[in-house]
Amino acid sequence: MANLFAIKANILHFPNATTNPETEYQYFENGVMVVESDKIKALGHEQDILPHFHGIEVIDASGKLLVPGFIDTHLHFPQTEMIASYGEQLLEWLENYTFPTERKFENVEYSRFIASKFMNQLWSNGTTTALAYSTVHACSAEALFEKADTHNMLMITGKTCMDRHCPDWLQDTAETAENETRALIDKWHNKGRLKYAITPRFAPTSTTEQLQRLGRIVQDHSDVFIQTHLSENKDEIEWVKSLYPECIDYLHVYEQFGLVNERTVFGHCIHLEDHTWERLGELQSIIAFCPRSNLFLGSGLFEIAKAEQYKVPVTLASDVGAGDSFSMLRTQGEAYKVCQLQHIKLHPFKGLYMMTQGSAHALSLDDSIGNLNVGSHADFTLLDPKFNELSDLRMSSRTNTPDDTLFALSMLSDERTIAGTWIAGKPVYQGTNSGV
Ligand code: GUN
Ligand code: ZN
Predict the structure, then answer these.
(1) Which residue's alpha carbon is at the smallest distance from atom 3 of ligand 1?
(2) N or C: which end of the chain has fewer CB within 10 A?
(3) Taking the model in full, what pTM does it have?
């Protein structure tokens, strides 16, 4: 039998790309969404929708908040097990914790084991699409693709490319990086809902020959994504300067090899000069703002006002395992605090936009994800605003507007907040508080 059901809840999303998510949202109190097969069939007020679907199965999630599944635009799936590793800033953290952990992914069984754990973490936190790094091993990317494909999930990943300045046992070469990347693109890119991201780890760990070869792949595959890191940490930036003295800035290292376009997602972008901001705006590259990681590693404060000034698309990301939580809601909460330190109020709808429709639009995927429009894939999550005693007290203490509810959840939520997560119309996670 075809998958057909309705779900009754308070429904919130952004139907269009906008620079004003504070006002350009759609909210149906006691709304209904109808799912048919893997897509959204109808959305609106109960009385306008249900009479057209006589006898349909209705999931009653009254009082809960239904939102599009979250999109996490920067995280490292092999770092799942090393989340919350003590004491270091970026370069030492990579040496001491990250590289030894990533070595384990030369084993395909281990890659599959962690891919499965990683997916459980995404879903139990309401995340339905991720732009994730794998390790240098092609089998790690394969493991993640396989797992996502089984669930018809829109997952973007790529084998990490790194042929210098990391341990020998974790290096590829310029040539194997090119060959393996091309083979993975041929096998996985646009298979079902999967997409490929060419993934040079960051400028210091690639030779110019490797970056050149990856740039050539971009020329041959104009619709693949590119993901890497940019200007995260001051020591890293000095290192890049010493490795590429001829470049005007860190961005230029990537740009000279054709790796900077509107499908490039740069993690962090904390310490940028105005001319770099300007160039990012011209090229419409995408920033992954990773507040929890930036605080955890002591990297610095992302300047959202600069991004707005130069019209650079900003998306929100967890950056696990430098980020210390898979929760995009709590990541939004931390983004709010990073903005507070700069005397900027990050509106909760702007936060939600940056992890749903805003990310989808930046990635040119908003015909399928990031919103609850009719025809989009039915990737959504159901939030329980009263998931524990404290949140119940907080939510009951005033008239609940969706922005206030969302703001409180961005500060207070934990895994009990997620009542359920659906991907392509199928439940992939059911919370203990689901009641559905
Ligand atoms: N820069 C290069 N590699 C990494 C990584 O794995 N995590 C973070 N946060 N920054 C990086
Ligand atoms: Zn990262």
Answers:
(1) 201
(2) N
(3) 0.98
Judgement on whether residues 100 and 217 belong to the same structural domain of the protein: yes
Pocket flag, ligand 1, residue 381 (CB < 6 Å): no
Name residue 421's beta-bridge partners: 381, 429
Strands 26-36 and 39-45: antiparallel
Is the domain of 9 the same as that of 129?
no
The residue from 326, 360, 387 where one domain ends is 326
Tokens of 143: 């493991």
- Listed residues 326, 356, 385: the one ending a domain: 326
Q: Domain check: are 232 and 312 in the same one?
A: yes
Instruction: Looking at the structure, tell me whether residues 158 and 42 fall in a common domain.
Output: no
CATH of the domain at 186: 3.20.20.140
Q: What are phi and psi of 253, to 5 degrees?
A: -55, -45
CA-closest residue to ligand 1 atom 9:
322
The stretches of 267-420 forming alpha helices (DSSP H) are: 274-283, 291-296, 304-309, 328-340, 348-353, 357-362, 389-396, 402-412
> CB of 137 closer than 6 A to ligand 1?
no
User: Ligand 1: which atom is nearest the Cα of residue 322?
Assistant: 9
Residue 275: which residues within 8 A CB-CB, separation 6 or more?
A: 248, 249
How many angstroms does the Cα of residue 90 sit away from the middle of ligand 1? 7
Q: How far apart are CA 405 and CA 135, in angstroms?
A: 38
Number of compact structural domains in the chain = 2
Indicate which CATH number applies to the domain containing 400. Answer: 2.30.40.10
pLDDT one digit per residue (tens) for the chain, 436 residues: 689 999 999 999 999 999 999 999 999 999 999 999 999 999 999 999 999 999 999 999 999 999 999 999 999 999 999 999 999 999 999 999 999 999 999 999 999 999 999 999 999 999 999 999 999 999 999 999 999 999 999 999 999 999 999 999 999 999 999 999 999 999 999 999 999 999 999 999 999 999 999 999 999 999 999 999 999 999 999 999 999 999 999 999 999 999 999 999 999 999 999 999 999 999 999 999 999 999 999 999 999 999 999 999 999 999 999 999 999 999 999 999 999 999 999 999 999 999 999 999 999 999 999 999 999 999 999 999 999 999 999 999 887 899 999 999 999 999 899 999 999 999 999 998 666 6
Widest Cα–Cα separation across the chain:
69
| Distance from Cα 152 to the centre of ligand 1, integer Å | 28
